[in-house]
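To the wet lab folks,

You asked to see what we're planning to order before we commit. Fair enough. Below is the target structure as tokens, and below that is the sequence we designed to fit it. If anything looks off to you, flag it before the synthesis order goes out.
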């Protein structure tokens, strides 16, 4: 059976609280997105399960489905301060099909071990038959972790020469 979950990890030279703060901020999601789909976000930082915000998307970045610009609602499904955050995605006019994304944070020597995960095992069976999942690749998750590291590591990005 093919995998229906991706998990990638990277050690990042930043405190778990700094990473968690960025992941709770809707604009933080836009800032670290490697797919090019997240254009902007509307809403306040989240701090509890059930909190939500809107992400303004542009599917043309993937060049896979003719969806153009659209909005999704991100709803927090798991939130343990400085340890884990996970969310579901729903359309503005339709419920979630059952996929979710998240991050686990573990203190590590010199920073934080960050695990990014994307799970589509529980999507609606009819949606599963359509063959459109996974939307993102494991490589996209790895790239996002690279952008996250560049964004939060002590010292920030290197100064241009």
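Sequence we intend to order:
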């Amino acid at each position: 059976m093919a995998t229906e979950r991706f998990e990638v990890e990277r050690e990042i030279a930043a405190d778990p609280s700094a990473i968690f703060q960025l992941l709770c901020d809707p604009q933080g999601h836009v800032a670290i997105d490697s797919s090019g789909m997240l254009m902007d976000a509307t809403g306040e930082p989240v701090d509890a399960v059930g909190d939500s915000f809107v992400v303004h998307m542009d599917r043309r970045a993937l060049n896979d489905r003719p969806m153009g610009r659209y909005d999704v609602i991100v709803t927090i499904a798991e939130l343990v301060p400085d340890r884990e955050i996970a969310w579901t995605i729903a359309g503005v006019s339709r419920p979630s099909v059952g996929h979710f994304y998240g991050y686990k944070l573990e203190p590590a020597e010199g920073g934080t071990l960050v695990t990014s995960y994307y799970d589509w095992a529980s999507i609606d069976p009819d949606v599963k038959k359509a063959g459109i999942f996974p939307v993102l690749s494991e490589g996209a998750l790895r790239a996002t972790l690279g952008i996250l590291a560049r964004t939060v590591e002590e010292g920030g990005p290197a100064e241009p020469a």
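Structural context that might help your review: The two ends are 49 Å apart (CA to CA). The domain at 5-152 is CATH 3.30.530.20 (Alpha-D-Glucose-1,6-Bisphosphate; Chain A, domain 4).

Thanks,
Computational group
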